[in-house]
Amino acid sequence: MSRPGRDDDPDRLYTVTGGRSRSESDVFDLVTIVVSESAPAPGMQSEHAAILRICHSPTAVVEVASYLGLPVSIVRILLGDLHAEGRITARHPRTAASVDQLPDPEILKQVLVGLRNL
Fold first, then answer.
1. Contact 78, 16 (CB under 8 A)
2. Taking the CB of residue 90, how many other CB atoms lie within 10 A of it?
3. pLDDT the model gives residue 28
4. Is 28 left (phi over 0), alpha (psi -120 to 50) or beta?
């Protein structure tokens, strides 16, 4: 049984990434949400164009890899290219800003006491 990405011709994967084996950006992990900011351009690499179409709505990196049938490491390199060009935006679902927006623990304690008194 063939597994997507695992049994691909190494020469093809080498060509897809332009010979790169690592992403220059560490922005992308498996759950990073990616959204395309532009439509595919004529003459664009087919994998880049496919990513822009897939990410028309918010999509996780692991989902992009699944749709393309490519290893996540290869997809991260391609996403890095698009991110550097400003064609996509990336956001991790749990950012430091969201931690800062959590309610004050003292307020939560008071709410709990109030609920128990009901």
1. yes
2. 18
3. 84
4. beta
